[in-house]
Amino acid sequence: MREALEMRPTGWPDPAWALLRVAVLVGVGYYVGARIGLALTFEPMPVAVLWPPNSLLLAALILTPRRWWWAAIAGALPAHLLAELQGGVPLAMVLGWFASNVLEAAIGAAIVLRFSEARGLRTLRSVVAFCCAALLAPFLSSFVDAGLVLAIGWGEAEFATLWQMRFYSNVLAILIFVPVFLAWSAGEPVPLRQGSRGQIAEIAVLVAGLFAVSLAVFDSRLAPGATAPSLLYLPVPFLIWAALRFGPALTSAAYAIVAFLVIWGAAHGRGPFHAAALVYDALPIQLFLASLAVPLLLLAAVVEERREAERRLRASEELFATAFRQGPDAIALSRAADGLVIEANDRWLELLGYPLGTRPDAVAPFRDHLDDASRRRLQAMAAAPQQGADLEVAMRDCFGRQHAVLVAMAHVQVAGEPCSITILRDITQQRQAEKDARDQRRQLTHLTRVASLSDFSSTIAHELNQPLTAILANAQAALRFLQRDPPNVAEIRAILDEIADADKRAGLLIHHLRLLMKKGEEEFVQVDLNPLVRDVLDFIRGEFLLRGVDVKTAYGSDLPQVRGDRVQLQQVVLNLVCNACDAMQGQTQRRVVTLTTAQNAEGGVELTVSDTGPGISANQMERVFEPFYTTKESGLGMGLAICRRIAAAHGGTLSVQSRPGEGATFRFVLPAVVAAASALRPEDGSRRSIAAP
Question: How many CA atoms lie within 13 A of 429 on its CB side?
Fold first, then answer.
C-alpha cells in the first residue's frame, strides 16, 4: 500500500502529487462512507443511525497539514455531490449539507490539534481532547445544518428533531471511525507484524470470540424481548481484553466491529434493538454505542500511558545500571549519615585497591582513604555541594599508592534514607603528564636562555677582562709603592680602593651571568620593571659597543610593581633587545634601539622595544611568534615563542607592530600589583644614551 501511494507520474513535482493523492483518497473515502451510511439505515424509513463521511473528513484534516486542508475538502466535494444528487436532493440542500459537514470537520480537527499532544490516542489528554471534539463539533455544526434544512424547505421535521438526529448520528460516527484512522496511522507497532506467535494466537482468539459473541447478541433472530438486557454487555470483556493487552489500535478496531454488527442487526430487523428500528428511533443504539466508546478509549489510553511509563522506567533503570557498571568513572552509593558503601562498581573497587567482587559492606568509606585536610574539604563539599563543582583531592588506595582524583557528589533518597552518589575520576596520569610538560617547557626555556648567552661569550669575556686587567695593574703598582722607603701609604690605599671597585664590577657581572644561567623552579615575587631593564642593559652594554648600536631609554616614574619570575622577565627583555640589534645588523645607517616603560590606560605596566631596522613584512607578522620560525641563518626560532609563553604565564601579553622600512616595535604588557600613576621622567638621567664609539 505504501509503495502504491509513493508512486507518482514521471515529471510530477512531489508537492503536487501529494496534494492530488490526498484529494483522491479523501474523495474515495467520503463516497464509500456515504454508501455505508445509506446501507446502515432503518427500513422502510431512511433514518441514518450514523453518517460516516463527516468523520472520515475529520480524520483526514487531523492527519494532513493545515496547508493541505483545501485539497482534502476539494476532493470531498465531488464525492458528496455524487452521493447526494443520486437521491434527488436539491442542489442547494446538497451544498448546504456539505458546508455544515466541512464546518464540523474543521472545528473537530482544530480542537484535536490544539489540545492533543499525540494523534494516536495513546494518552489520556489526547483522548479527552478527542472526546470534546466529538461532542462540540457536531453540537455546533448541527445548528447550521438544521437551520439550512428549514430555510431551504427540505423536510417537515421540527428544528429540535433535525438537530437531534444529526447530532447523535455524527457523534457516533466520529467515535467509531476516527479512532481507527488515528490509532492505525500513528505509527504504532502492528501486533500481527511484530508480535510473537503467542500474541498472534491471542489476537486471533480475541477477534474470533468478539465476532461470535457480537453475532449471537446483536444479529439474533429471536423474537423481540427474548434477549436478556444483560447480554448486551457480553462483548465488553473482549473489548476490555483488547484495551488492556493491545492498546488503542486493536481496541478501536474491535469496537468498530461491535458497532457495525449492532447497527447492521438493527437495520435488518434482528437483535435487541429491533424495537428501536420499528419506531424509527436510532437514539437507543446511539447512546448504547457511545456509552461503550468513551470509557473504552479512556481505558486504553490509561493502560497505554502506564505501559509507556513502565517502558521508560525500565529504560531508565537499564541506562543507569549500564552507566553505573560500565562507566569509565568510579561510582559508589553510600549512606549520608556514616558514609558506609551500599553499592559500588568495579572501577571503584579497582581504584581503591579492593579485589573485584568484594561485598559493599567490606569496602571502607571513601573518607578513610583521605588525609585530614582532604577529608575536611570533602565534608564541606558534602554539606553544601555546588552544581557541577568538582573537588580535587589526594587519596591512597589499600596498597598505599597515592592517586589524584576528582570528586563529584550528589544527594539522593533511597527507600526514604538520605544517601549520596560519589563519582571519582582518576587524574593521576593527567597530573603527571602536566608536570612532565611543565618540566619540559622549563627545560626548553632554560636551554634557550643559555643558548642566547653563548652569543655574548666574546662580549662577556671582554667585560670581565677589563676589571681583571685593572686589578692586575693596580696590584703591580701597589707592590712598587711598597718597595719604596718609606712606602707611600696614601697611594697604596687609593690603589686598594680601585682594586675593590674592579672586583665588585667583575663579581656583579658574574652574578648576573649565574642568574641567567641558573636552572630551578619558578619564583614569583614583586618586581620593579625599571631596575630589571637597567640590569639587562648593563649586562650586555659591551654588545651594543661591538655592534655599533645606540640605546635610548625612557623610564616611567612611579611605576607600580609587577609579579613574576625575575629571571624569566630578564630573559624576555634580553631576547627583545637582542632581536632588535639583529634586525639592524646589515644596515649602514644609524642603528638605534629604544626602550620605554610606562603605565597604560588599563593600569598595567608595559615595556616597548623599538628598532630602526627594515621592519617585518605582512606575511611574516602572522608567523613571527610561531615556534621554529626564524629569519636568521643560525636561529632556532624559539626565542619569541618562549617569550610569548612567559608573558602569558605572567598574565600579560606580547605583541608586535611594524611597517616595512620603519622598524618594528614589540609591546610587552604585564598586570600591575598596585595601581599607580605613570609618567616619563624628563630629568635625572631618565633618558640616557649608550653611544657606539
Answer: 2
C-alpha 36/C-alpha 27 separation (Å) is: 14
HEC readout, 397-411 = CCCCCEEEEEEEEEE
CA distance 99 to 103: 6
The separation between the first and the last C-alpha atoms of the chain, rounded to the nearest angstrom, is 101
The DSSP result for 627-676, as a single string, is TT--SSSS--S-HHHHHHHHHHHTT-EEEEEE-TTS-EEEEEEE-BSS--
Question: CA torsion 176→272→163→179, rounded to 10°?
Answer: -10
Quote the CA–CA distance of 572 and 654 in Å, as a whole number: 10
3-state secondary structure of 388: coil
Side chain identity at residue 20, one-letter code: L
Which CATH number does the domain housing residue 666 bear? 3.30.565.10
pLDDT averaged per 10 residues, the chain (length 693): 40 68 90 80 57 90 89 90 79 88 92 81 89 93 87 77 86 91 71 64 89 81 55 86 88 89 76 59 82 90 88 84 82 85 87 87 86 84 67 87 87 82 86 76 61 54 58 66 71 70 60 57 79 80 75 87 81 80 76 88 86 77 66 58 78 83 85 55 37 32
Cell (9 digits) for 155:
423536510
User: Pairing between strand 591-599 and 549-554?
Assistant: parallel
Give the domain-ending residue among 133, 164, 184. 184
The length of the chain in residues reads 693
Going from the C-alpha of 229 to that of each of 1, 260, 272, 294, the distances in angstroms are 43, 19, 8, 20
Q: Which of 280, 313, 346 is the last residue of a domain?
A: 313
Within-domain flag for 436: no
| CATH number, domain with residue 391 | 3.30.450.20
Would you say residue 90 lies in a domain? yes
Q: Does 294 lie in the same domain as 244?
A: yes
